[in-house]
Design goal:
alpha/beta; 6-stranded mixed beta sheet; elongated
Length: 187
Amino acid sequence: ARPIIQMDDLCIKQFQEKSDRLIIFGIDASGSTAMARLAEAKGAVEQLLAQAYARRDHVALIGFRGFSSTIFLPPTRSLVQTKNRLSGLVGGGGTPLAHGLENCWKQAILAQRSGMSPIIVLITDGRANITKAGQADRKQAIKDAEDMAQLIRVDNISTLVIDNSRTASRGLQSLAQKMGAHYITLP
């Protein structure tokens, strides 16, 4: 005897699709940004986080200020944890832009190796004044940042640069172009 299978006998289970995208936020928390628009930058990141959470993207937070950058949050999908770490980001000190870019690049390379699609979202006023080696030298700091920008472009990492200075920065526009990044200004 042959089994009889009816439509009611079948059960279809759908799994929620999870994103393979990693959004790496590189946030300038230097003195020049803290004085001007760090709170607004955090607000912009929170809006982007809400969208990332809805798409089930992974996010990472890297802050840079003083003489180096710090990974405040390795890749996660936790919106609560991300918001808590973001609120703990305090401003002050120099702008080690190249060091921040280097940490963003390293996270992006790790993500690529694990099969993810990284996107770097850099929020800065672009006033680099601390070299990758941690020295106060504006000219070398700008060169170091440009070198990192070219490395990011060579590795074909998608990048968005959000200028949070009061007026659009030509230097930051140039850096974004070297990086192959989309450039926008924070309203």
